[in-house]
Amino acid sequence: KVSRMDDIEDIGALLDSAAMDAARNGSTDRGVVSHRHSEREKEDEGEAKSKSAVIRKGGSLRRRRRRYAWHGDESKVEQGKRRLAEEARSVVPGTQSVYVKTWGCSHNNSDGEYMSGQLASYGYTITDDRKAADVWLLNSCTVKDPSQAVFVNAIRQGQEQGKRVVLAGCVSQAQPNLAGLEDLSIIGVQQIDRVVEVVEETLKGHTVRMLGQKKGGGARLHLPKIRKNPLIEIIPINTGCLNQCTYCKTKHARGDLRSYMPDEIVQRVEAVLKEGVVEIWLTSEDLGTYGRDIGHTLPELLWRIVDVLPDYAMLRCGMTNPPYILEHLDEMCRILNHPQVYAFLHVPVQAASDHVLYDMRRKYTCAEFCRVVEALEANVQDMTVATDIICGFPTETREDFEETLDLVRKYKFPIINISQFYPRAGTPAARLKRVPTQEVKRRSRALTQLFEGYMTRDHKVGLVQRVLVTQEARDGVNWVAHNKSYDQVLVSKTHTDVLGKMIDVRIVRAGKHYIVGEVLRDSLQRAPQALVEPLPAGQVSQTHKDDAKFDGAADPREAKSKNNKIKKNEKRTIRVSSTPRAKPFWSQPLAIGLLLVVAAVSLAIAQKLVHDLRVHGHN
User: Fold this and answer.
1) pLDDT (tens digit, 9 = 90+) per residue, 461-520?
2) Is 368 exposed, middle or buried (0-12, 13-18, 19+ CB in 10 A)?
3) 217 vs 250, 261, 548, CA distance in Å?
4) What three-state secondary structure class fits 76?
């Protein structure tokens, strides 16, 4: 009899060969493993119960540590242990399948693409089939409570299906001890270049947590990558930010500002263009802060990128907070007017009341935000300004919210991300007294109704515009393209040869969130397009092998140094930090000076003692 089995290997001892084969072949339901009865057991049910067992755990192998009871021959137990041990030894790293799921912003999506690329380069199969996958890699977003709840629910689903689960993204970085994340492997947001190691060790039954902060910020830009859309490359230009917003949890995960060098970013742009990419997205937690930590500026970087863009490619800038774009406003207007740059910028306002902005620690006033919007709309043709608004911040009164509604009525933003306030654990705003939930919902509905009540694209009907076609629409009957204003333009898929091309369309209809264009056939023959075909969907980008200045091993397997490699016999939970080891105390300049002072004082005391002894001797 074996009980209180605390290791996954001991669970295998409960299975006879038939049940193990059935489980491996998928013919037995996961989490419900039944032993086959022999003919003799069928005849004598009582004797059968003493020689076999049925393990039922509510339909899941939810945890490895459970109590089980076994009634049977000791030889079967030992035989099961040997079989499972042999099976574990025969597992070849890099031969399993991995399901990768990402939530959140474009930066998080870029991280997910990099992790998929490294795993695929090592030999793992990236699959969209959750049931068939051996490992689930869940890349989380911590901006709102609902997105975190979806992430935690996905963890539970994976565990119920008996999957190995590896966590990544901002939730697990900021709250590694959150309920539901216990005993699970975690890859920190700055450790995505070590995803192969974490997955490999997780498959061995270890729990690995890599949460350290790198001195230089995020992972290198030239890692292997599988683009979700082969035509679009997402490039993070910096990580972290300079703000301390009282409601924001992302700061806890991404940390302080760390910018990539301009040369590395431009090299990445040049490399991906050779793989058929036609649209570049620049992303970060705050684009406007780029370069402040390394002596460069955002306009300087943008001009360098524009210089290498061919006429068939477009550049899209992401989000910037108002205070960091103000000093570059004139230069940004010139850049956004460039034909290869979308006239689009995401500038969050969050609230129109200055005292609410102060309580949020947003570092700008509503007047400064308005100055940014008015400068962009006045100086950039067909400019699109997207913004964010939080309804029901704890110190927001009804009068404050009315100011926000007035701001929306004034500018009629074509894109607004409307959020209800959610207290995020560990943030200062979470300690404030909340606005009643029903009032928060009322404000959110009022703002939504206002936003849905006006149109911003009607004036474009009848115009001929050049658009870049980048993907298939969800309806399956249209292509999705974007014009210079970054409006979503739907184009019929009856034109089968337009994907990845710039074409001219006549706008025939406008909706709230899109416009519809008819293709002008003459433009198909002169449409600028990439000189090379884009990579097939799911294929790994090979730019890391072509870059002569790539710092580090091209193959993820070569990236495992002896110092970083996880030892086979280490403890089950391994916490690895990339933070450089502190220098010895005596190697610090201040310490050296202190030691010299101590030595000088000691020498003086010794000389005084010797002098006193001589005087005493004479006396």
Assistant:
1) 999 999 999 999 999 999 999 999 999 999 999 988 899 999 999 999 999 999 999 999
2) middle
3) 15, 11, 22
4) helix
